[in-house]
Amino acid sequence: MESHSMRSRHSSSPHDKKEISSNDYDLDQQDHIRGIETSAETSLHRGLKARHISMIAIGGAIGTGLIIGTGKALAKAGPGAILISYSVIGFVVFLVMAGLGEISSWLPMSAGFTGYASRFCDPSLGFALGWTYWFKYIILPPNQLTAAALVIQFWLPRDRVNPGVWIAIFLVAIIAINYFGVRFFGEFEFWLSSFKVVVIIGVILVSLVITAGGADGHARGFEYWRSPGAFNGHFNDYVPEGALGRFLSFYSTLVTATFAFLGTELVGVTVGEAQNPRKTIPRAIKLTFYRIVVFYIVSVFLVGMIVPYNDPKLAFANTASTSAAASPFVVAIELANIDALPHILNASILLFVFSAANSDLYIASRTLYGLASDGSAPAIFRKTDSRGVPIYALFTSAVFGLLGFLNVSDDSKEVFTYFVNVTTILGLLSWISILVTHIWFVRARKAQGLTDEMMPYTAPLGIWGSYLALFICVLVAITKNFDAFIPSISVKSNYTAFITGYIGIPVYLALIFGHKFVTKSKGVRPHECDFYTGKDIIDREEEEFLANQAAERAAHPDKGRSFYRKWVSWLF
Known about the structure:
Blueprint: H1 50-61, H2 64-67, H3 69-77, H4 79-106, H5 112-120, H6 123-152, H7 163-179, H8 182-212, H9 223-229, H10 243-261, H11 277-306, H12 312-317, H13 328-335, H14 341-373, H15 391-399, H16 410-447, H17 462-479, H18 492-502, H19 504-519, H20 535-555, H21 563-568
Helix pairs in contact: 1-8, 1-11, 3-4, 3-10, 4-10, 4-11, 4-16, 4-17, 5-6, 5-16, 6-7, 6-14, 6-16, 6-19, 7-14, 7-15, 8-11, 8-14, 14-15, 16-17, 16-18
């Protein structure tokens, strides 16, 4: 490819024809566009079809946070509180995804949202976002593998089979799935996510049957909203029951809901491997809103109708491990005297956790690859094999899966728990970074005359939606461990929770300002933002893909749409 075809086009508005410097996004010495890979040795393969992307987006939105985590939130605050908190955070998630969709549909970069932050906002923000996001996703796979081993203990106690055996088996399996290429990974996750959808729909239907009295003849309706009530007024022994107790209980579930939704943004990591990303990514993001409503809001609403928040069985479930015993839906099934379903739901949770570990390793490897593509990690991590797999990034990330064996020993469990607590704040910081990047992106495109009509996709609420979501995310990030001060932070468990809950923020800020100090980088000014370098490459890929599709349709005019595209794709 001629070097001039890869140079920056005019990044100014149509009304201002002078050429603007595109920082370091023209070319480096190796003819490498930062954040976009074109050579066979470093490029990813666009093997993820529209149905893969759509189902991977669903898989990121459905997990144990919904099936299990809602139980603790319900017991803490009551059905009315969790319905409000999950609705508010669900709306925030949609705004985050909409902002990410607007950026990624304009320029689907190999580096993902790490590259977007560097290119459209500040290289130091991209550096900090990428490394903290990678740290989060190298800790999550071993945590998920441990959870899978705990689920199996529902049938096989640890005195019969050591949990380390299951951790080893699952670790080898997820490495193999990721090693065999993105097409294999996409197909595997498509069917796992399809199974998740079936399970959640089944849970919703069973909940409706229980609510209507079809299981045991007891029509509950809103009975538990009246007694014991929609809001729990008891926060803890140090706060008197009443309005303050109800508010603090509600606010604590706002935090719980936030972390239940973390991971939904993973669709932004797939843009470098998506076929026709300008169509598939916005479509998956548009459907995110409906998925949140159907899978989260409806499920949370129904669980509040079938389990009273003060039920002793729910309190017991909250002390259980990651298995069916910990699910509020299982508590409801037991209260309705339905046999066998706990075993079925436990098997479903096992697949949920395995799918999460699998996609977490994928995200970790692509994040490290994106960092290398963006120039923020050693170049070796952007090397790919013949299947387009970033092999060095994959195995480096997979090594940290061995941390799962820490959980086999009781002595090291506490240390690992601290790691997990640290990573949760990093997920919230990633949302904040995406929102800041979108705000800068919109400001820059307006400064350069790029109208909404010129964009493949625009966020429905625009820049103001991102401002609103940013405010809520910052508020939750600052106050998420407020209970550490009740009654006093001097209590050991409180200051431990405070440190592990907030240490991610100074680490994140240290990475930003440390990178600025070393590289002397500056934020991207709106009129200097480079919207075009490498866009011609993406345009040609899109044209080739659409031409191939048209040729295939012409060669097979009688070929109808697949079952998925005809009957399922409109919703999922």
